[in-house]
Specification:
The structure is a homodimer.
Chain A: E1 5-7, E2 11-14, H1 25-30, E3 32-37, E4 53-59, E5 69-70, E6 80-81, E7 94-105, E8 108-112, E9 120-127
Antiparallel strand pairs in A: 2-3, 2-9, 3-8, 4-7, 4-9, 5-6, 7-8
């Protein structure tokens, strides 16, 4: 048997998007969501409100395919290698989103800039650091496309 | 029983760091590593070489504790909420690193800027997009510290 790892949801993301199709660029950037951390993890949020941006790690729970070639959501004209996309149908359906942290109240974070659908399971939260900020050089097949 | 999800390694990261302690800031930024994707996933790398930066998602396989308060590696003087750190001892020990993509040869990627130890299991690769680049405002307890 091949090795595998087990992960568990630590919370749930409440936001206004009910389907992927609603998430066009500008709506996504402005979208405000509530991150509900399960009570038993609340202590881990200590010191978080000092950060202006955080990274949400989440489970793409509506993805049911494990593909290596995919048609990107807004640009379906060509098949792309899945690792050159953020498409949900990937070997390990883990999503990442950098959001602005607006407010923390106990186990609830209010954030801006989410791109997942309502009810998405949360897996991890990390602070966004200087080392996560890179001068984007080449954007490959996405060059000139507004994602 | 609580819900959980299963993830599997898709490759392995070969680099020069044998322990966490070796990873000081400047060494990490310059560090060059080889990402070996298992052959069965190679097709998913199509179109990747157009991107200057990619995000590596990896499993912190040397982490054996699931803590909510941790002492950060280079700043152990105070306990911090784990979600305000990148510490490996977290509920779901998933690591993220943005690296520069130097070269692709078949199922091997040569990258610069890794901060994981040799032999780390790879879970996912994503292209680094404009939306991942944020103007870092507040850095919380890390303000003025060089990570």
């Amino acid at each position: 048997m091949k090795v595998s790892y087990r992960i568990k949801p630590i919370g749930i993301i409440h936001c206004s998007f009910k389907t992927r199709d609603e998430m066009t660029g500008s709506k996504r950037i402005e979208n405000i969501a509530e991150i509900e951390l399960y009570k038993e993890y609340e202590e881990g949020l200590g010191d978080i409100d000092g950060f202006s941006h955080i990274i949400l790690v989440w489970w793409m729970h509506k993805s049911h395919y494990r593909n290596l070639k995919v048609k990107p959501l807004h640009f379906p004209e060509e098949l792309r290698g899945v690792f050159a996309t953020r498409h949900p149908d990937r070997p390990n359906p883990i999503g990442l989103t950098v959001v602005q942290l607006l407010e923390r109240k106990r186990n609830i974070l209010r954030v801006k800039g989410t791109d997942m659908i309502d009810g998405t399971p949360l897996i991890d939260i990390k602070p966004y650091l200087e080392s996560d900020r890179k001068d984007v050089g080449k954007l490959g097949w996405l060059t000139g496309r507004n994602l």
